[in-house]
Cytochrome c550 (Fontibacillus phaseoli), 119 residues
Amino acid sequence: MQKWIMSGILIVACAFAAVLMFTLPGKDQVAQEEKPQMPEITLNAEQAETTVKANCISCHGDQLQGGAGPNLQKIGSELSAEQLFGIIAKGKGGMMPAFKDKLKEDEIANIAMWLAEKK
């Protein structure tokens, strides 16, 4: 009787493992979700400044000098537009919130390109 119970548990465990193998996202899919793709847009500096003033100055300061968040005045010499896009979209750590649900993808890309020029 005990062999039947153990066999049943083994069959259920194997079936569960097979279901997980086919339903969990693959490594490529997870990597794609972790690194958002920046859309190709033309930089509009005036619009980027307006969006930054409306969303970023409370942490990064009115001159991007820093405060609760880091200084962004020369962030372009450290990070590319694509890296900045990922950070703005997804957030970083507990301090930088994600803006992917608050701003449009084009707005985030515009800010990232504008910040990338700050060197």
Q: What stands out?
A: The chain has a mean pLDDT of 89. Residues 15 and 105 are 41 Å apart (CA to CA). The first helix runs from residue 2 to 23.
